[in-house]
Amino acid sequence: MSSVKISKHPLVAHKLSILRNKNTKPKQVRELLNEIGQLLGYEATADLPIKETNILTSPLGEYTGVELATKIGFVVVLRSGLSFAEALHEIIPSARILHLGIFREKVSLQPVEYYNKLPSVPNVDQVIVLEPMIATGGTAIAAISILRDWGIKSKIKFVTVCASKQGIENIIENHHDVEIFVGAVDEVLDERGYIVPGLGDAGDRLYDTPYL
Length: 212
What we know:
The protein is of the alpha/beta class. It contains six helices and twelve strands. Strands 1, 4, 5, 6, 7, 8, 9 and 10 form an eight-stranded mixed β-sheet that branches. Strands 2-3 form a two-stranded antiparallel ribbon.
């Protein structure tokens, strides 16, 4: 699938291997997600359009300045998406941070929206959704639908550490124009909808709450 970009960066593979380990402590989980998020964010922003501005002066001469041509919004899917927010904000300090609260109901595995802090009218031209895990894809599909209904017409990008093959297929089936930047794609979901081997529940591992 051309819309799915699986990172080939050796640092992503190395850090993800440590992140998967069940013995990795929450502090290091937070650090690793921040670092992986920044590496994936670099890849996701490689084709952002730029425009020329005014003539500026370096220590040795004049040059034509450039800046981003679009207003970027990072959509943080609570709560695990918070681990990516600071990492990508460091790359694009001018980006707006937007928040969506969506959780997966444990029995039905269906997404439930509980928080939406989007302005009444879109204040960005392009959004990059920050969600470290894509399991069944239900939460991602719900987030994309919310953003489309909000008024985002441009291509929506996703930055995620680990996804299941089924989850990605579900997203593309429902939203074929979405671009996904991912650290690794695992083949299997268990009966509870967790990615195997995956890395467990990202939010629980981040904040050291009971999981699985």
